[in-house]
């Protein structure tokens, strides 16, 4: 190539490079604008809840002034709930239900995912797809037959009934996550273990669980969030305050007819949302790693 030809090609190269930088710049600007709009939309409700929780009942009822400002901040709404034995019972019920459901979910999901991803048998692929399809059925349709099943077992109005039905929401999706993650683990690992005389249970405990720990953490976080925040099932199955979890206890006990204790309702909602926020804040990297790693095979 002659020097004249090279000089004629340089402006075109510079033009392409400049257009690429311009496209990246506009893409970055659009991304930031979208993120700001999304942040405003999603953060406006919790911010308003926090502001309202710092107000007295008289200030909330006062229609004068800016509702986004607090004239005399107070924590009395939070203390009233924390010192309330009924609210403490709601919290304990939620903790018990969540711990049991997460434990059952992870045991069932890990064993099912290991069997469906590694122990090949007739119909395993169809069964794996069917497990995920059950997750797509909304709980608003399932609670009617489940109500009859739980009633037949004599577990209505009991946290044990919730521990029985919550896994129907958590097990399918967690199993699907673990299937994808186990499938991404190289088969050479379990083949080498089988050659060395390892059993299937030893392979699961000593190879798959340590390697798939990010996926297990992601599934655990999902199960925790669903079981902590479930609303439809406790609303349908629980009627007395002593068996209520936080999700329905705060609403049912702080709303009497047309009287709404807005300050305590907002404080209770924020306190109920605090544990999932803390879990995601500390384990977000593991959650993202667990969801993305199972999307590819290698």
Structural description of this entry:
There is one protein chain. The protein has 298 residues and is mostly helical. The chain folds into two domains: 3-53; 76-293, MetI-like (MetI-like fold, Orthogonal Bundle), CATH 1.10.3720.10. It is built from 14 helices and two strands. It has helices at residues 3-53, 57-61, 76-82, 85-117, 124-135, 139-152, 159-165, 167-184, 187-195, 200-211, 213-229, 232-237, 246-254, 262-293; strands at residues 255-256, 259-260. It has a two-stranded antiparallel ribbon. Strand 1 and strand 2 form a beta hairpin. The longest helix is centred in the N-terminal third of the chain and has 51 residues, at 3-53. The relative contact order is 0.12.
Helix content: over 70%
CATH superfamily of the largest domain: MetI-like
CATH class of the largest domain: Mainly Alpha
Coarse shape: globular
Number of strands: 2
- N- to C-terminal distance: 44 Å
Give the strand order of the largest sheet, numbering strands 1, 2, ... along the chain: 1-2
Instruction: Give me the Rg, rounded.
Output: 26 Å
What are the secondary-structure elements, in order, as H or E? HHHHHHHHHHHHHEEH
Q: Which spans have pLDDT < 50 for at least 5 consecutive residues? A: 294-298
* Main sheet makeup: 2 strands, antiparallel
Q: Which strand-content bin applies to the residues?
A: under 5%
Q: Structurally, how many domains make up the residues?
A: 2
The CATH topology assignment of the largest domain is MetI-like fold
Q: What's the CATH architecture name of the largest domain?
A: Orthogonal Bundle
Nearest-integer average pLDDT: 82
* Strand-pairing-aware structural class: mainly alpha
The DSSP helix count reads: 14
């Amino acid at each position: 190539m002659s020097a004249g030809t090279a000089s004629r090609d340089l402006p075109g190269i510079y033009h392409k490079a400049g257009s690429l930088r311009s496209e990246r710049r506009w893409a970055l600007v659009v991304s930031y604008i979208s993120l700001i709009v999304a942040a405003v939309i999603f953060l406006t409700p919790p911010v308003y809840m926090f502001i309202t929780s710092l107000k007295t009942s008289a200030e909330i009822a006062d229609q004068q002034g800016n509702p986004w400002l607090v004239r005399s901040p107070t924590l009395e709404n939070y203390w009233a709930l924390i010192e309330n034995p009924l609210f403490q019972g709601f919290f304990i019920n939620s903790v018990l239900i969540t711990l049991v459901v997460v434990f059952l979910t992870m045991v069932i999901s890990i064993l099912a995912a290991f069997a469906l991803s590694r122990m090949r048998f007739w119909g395993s692929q169809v069964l794996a797809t069917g497990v995920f399809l059950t997750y797509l059925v909304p709980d608003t349709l399932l609670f009617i037959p489940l109500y009859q099943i739980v009633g037949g077992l004599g577990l209505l109005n009991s946290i044990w009934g919730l521990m029985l039905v919550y896994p129907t929401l958590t097990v399918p999706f967690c199993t699907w996550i673990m299937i994808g993650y186990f499938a991404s683990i190289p088969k050479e690992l379990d083949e080498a273990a089988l050659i060395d005389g390892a059993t299937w249970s030893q392979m699961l405990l000593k190879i798959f669980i340590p390697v798939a720990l990010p996926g297990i953490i992601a599934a655990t976080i999902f199960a925790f969030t669903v079981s902590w925040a479930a609303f439809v099932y406790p609303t349908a199955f629980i009627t007395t305050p002593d068996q209520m979890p936080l999700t329905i206890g705060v609403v049912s006990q702080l709303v009497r007819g047309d009287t709404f204790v807005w300050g305590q309702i907002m404080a209770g909602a924020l306190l109920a949302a605090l544990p999932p926020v803390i879990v995601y804040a500390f384990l977000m990297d593991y959650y993202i790693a667990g969801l993305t790693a199972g999307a590819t095979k290698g």
